[in-house]
């Protein structure tokens, strides 16, 4: 059986990834490609506990190295429990964030540098690489405004506080944004950059175009 396709979505908080992953999954389901959808941090029972620890604004101070190690602990569990079994069974995996997030947020935002993240990735994740990464980069200002608004709503509706990253200052997110751009420039074959303040439909169209191309190239659709 051919191995499944591993597709990741990346971007700043509030870049619209979650909406787009749902729309892409619906588009695939219509074509009888039933994807496995997962997210990081989270996506497994252990990962959800790690996620709560990482995102709760009560978890301060958290050393940058601890934060990076926890991201990789979560990822190792997701690879073993969800991603590898699905790919081995020939399923397409849609993953909301993967190691590019660690490179952008911890490597760039926390200034730990790319090399440390990439070294850890090789060690912990067996260098598993996405076949395709969809990087959503609307302007920094609009992403941040959307993320803050969403968080306030979530706290009001559910009492769940996933706010720790959003309390960071603009300079932090500027470094994250720049690191994402650097990754896209370094790996143009893997990373499809979707830039600018586009509508949900326009972003969806670009995503479908990139995904169709890969699915046709690998004979998964005609
Ligand atoms: P989410 O809200 O898109 O699920 O992301 C959770 C937060 O975790 C988001 O602020 C980005 C951050 N994050 C990192 O800092 N490093 C990582 O490796 C991952 C996967 C997420």
Automatic annotation (TrEMBL):
<keyword id="KW-0547">Nucleotide-binding</keyword>
<dbReference type="InterPro" id="IPR018095">
    <property type="entry name" value="Thymidylate_kin_CS"/>
</dbReference>
<feature type="domain" description="Thymidylate kinase-like">
    <location>
        <begin position="9"/>
        <end position="207"/>
    </location>
</feature>
<keyword id="KW-0808">Transferase</keyword>
<keyword id="KW-0418">Kinase</keyword>
<comment type="similarity">
    <text>Belongs to the thymidylate kinase family.</text>
</comment>
<protein>
    <recommendedName>
        <fullName>Thymidylate kinase</fullName>
        <ecNumber>2.7.4.9</ecNumber>
    </recommendedName>
</protein>
<dbReference type="InterPro" id="IPR018094">
    <property type="entry name" value="Thymidylate_kinase"/>
</dbReference>
<dbReference type="GO" id="GO:0006235">
    <property type="term" value="P:dTTP biosynthetic process"/>
</dbReference>
<dbReference type="GO" id="GO:0005829">
    <property type="term" value="C:cytosol"/>
</dbReference>
<dbReference type="GO" id="GO:0006227">
    <property type="term" value="P:dUDP biosynthetic process"/>
</dbReference>
<feature type="binding site">
    <location>
        <begin position="11"/>
        <end position="18"/>
    </location>
    <ligand>
        <name>ATP</name>
    </ligand>
</feature>
<dbReference type="GO" id="GO:0004798">
    <property type="term" value="F:dTMP kinase activity"/>
</dbReference>
<keyword id="KW-0067">ATP-binding</keyword>
<dbReference type="GO" id="GO:0005524">
    <property type="term" value="F:ATP binding"/>
</dbReference>
<dbReference type="InterPro" id="IPR039430">
    <property type="entry name" value="Thymidylate_kin-like_dom"/>
</dbReference>
<comment type="function">
    <text>Phosphorylation of dTMP to form dTDP in both de novo and salvage pathways of dTTP synthesis.</text>
</comment>
<dbReference type="InterPro" id="IPR027417">
    <property type="entry name" value="P-loop_NTPase"/>
</dbReference>
<keyword id="KW-0545">Nucleotide biosynthesis</keyword>
<dbReference type="Pfam" id="PF02223">
    <property type="entry name" value="Thymidylate_kin"/>
</dbReference>
<dbReference type="GO" id="GO:0006233">
    <property type="term" value="P:dTDP biosynthetic process"/>
</dbReference>
């Amino acid at each position: 059986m051919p191995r499944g396709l591993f597709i990741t979505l990346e971007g700043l908080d509030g870049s619209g990834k979650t909406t787009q992953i749902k729309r892409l999954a619906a588009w695939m389901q219509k074509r009888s490609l039933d994807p496995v959808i997962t997210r990081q941090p989270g996506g497994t029972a252990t990962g959800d506990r790690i996620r709560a620890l990482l995102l709760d604004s009560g978890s301060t101070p958290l050393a940058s190295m601890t934060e990076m190690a926890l991201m990789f602990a979560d990822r190792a569990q997701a690879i073993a429990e969800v991603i590898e079994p699905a790919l081995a069974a020939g399923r397409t995996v849609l993953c909301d964030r993967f190691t590019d997030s660690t490179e952008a947020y911890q490597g760039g935002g926390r200034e730990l540098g790319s090399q440390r993240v990439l070294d850890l990735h090789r060690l912990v994740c067996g260098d598993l690489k996405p076949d395709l990464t969809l990087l959503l980069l609307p302007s920094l200002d609009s992403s941040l405004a959307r993320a803050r608004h969403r968080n306030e709503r979530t706290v009001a509706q559910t009492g769940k506080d996933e706010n720790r990253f959003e309390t960071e200052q603009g300079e932090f997110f500027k470094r994250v944004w720049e690191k994402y751009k650097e990754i896209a420039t370094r790996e143009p074959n893997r990373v499809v950059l979707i830039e600018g303040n586009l509508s949900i439909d326009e972003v969806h169209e670009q995503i479908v175009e990139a995904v169709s191309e890969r699915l046709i190239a690998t004979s998964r659709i005609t």
